[in-house]
Design goal:
Layout: H1 10-27, H2 32-37, E1 48-51, E2 54-58, H3 66-69, E3 77-84, E4 87-91, H4 94-102, H5 104-107, H6 116-119, E5 128-135, E6 138-142, H7 145-151, H8 155-170, H9 175-184, H10 193-206
Helix pairs in contact: 1-9, 7-10
């Protein structure tokens, strides 16, 4: 009598899928996005892009100091440039560059500049420089207005989740591997974009 092969158990399946994702991600090591998002320093992973001649520029060159000093998103210039932990930052003025150089950690966007609402689900993905919040003197970037509104449904709760997953899973890990793994093995509280949009609409209806 021939036995029917059984699918691998859940832990084994997780290991197999994770290994497959790791191999696939490493196979893309020459990809510009892979290199830009994964510096060797303490900022790994980071929401950076290649902008010649630099391999990785934070937030596509947005001036991170302007959020603090001017309360707005402002694009920086390669003419005012600093490098910190393998990542290049652009500034709109020499004054902003000087402020950053004196205290770089003070001006860093949280969670590597990725969409904060994505980090709530342990997914380092997206992050638009013109979609942001300041919370307790720290800068948080979002992947657009919809992501920001979803996060604002429960700021304390979502922030606690983002900090948990950033510290326990995301920080120091390859962004592509982490993203792929958590898109397959979703966190228990995961919600789709449609579910979040519905929750936002319902909240608006309750509080017009």
């Amino acid at each position: 009598m021939t036995s029917t092969p059984q699918p691998p158990s859940s832990p084994v399946r997780r290991i197999l899928v994770t290994a497959t994702l790791a191999v696939a991600a490493l196979g893309l090591a020459g990809c510009g996005a892979m290199k830009a998002q994964n510096p060797s320093g303490s900022l790994k992973p980071v929401n950076a892009v290649a902008m010649a001649p630099d391999a990785r520029v934070m937030l596509a060159g947005a001036d991170v100091v302007a959020y603090f000093t001017e309360g707005r998103h402002r694009q920086g210039s390669p003419g005012f440039r600093s490098e910190y932990e393998g990542v290049v930052f652009h500034f709109a003025s020499a004054e902003h560059k000087t402020l950053f150089d004196a205290e770089p950690a003070r001006y860093l966007p949280q969670f590597g500049g990725y969409c904060t609402n994505g980090i709530v689900y342990a997914i380092p993905w997206g992050g638009d420089a013109d979609s942001w919040l300041m919370i307790d003197g720290q800068l948080y970037i979002f992947g657009g207005q919809a992501s920001k509104e979803a996060f604002e449904l429960d700021v304390p709760g979502n922030l606690a989740l983002a900090e948990k997953y950033w510290n326990e899973e995301v920080r120091g890990r390859n962004s592509f591997i982490q993203r792929a793994q958590r898109l397959v093995f979703k966190v228990p509280h995961y919600q789709t974009g449609e579910q979040l949009a519905k929750a936002v609409a319902e909240a608006r209806a309750r509080n017009p």
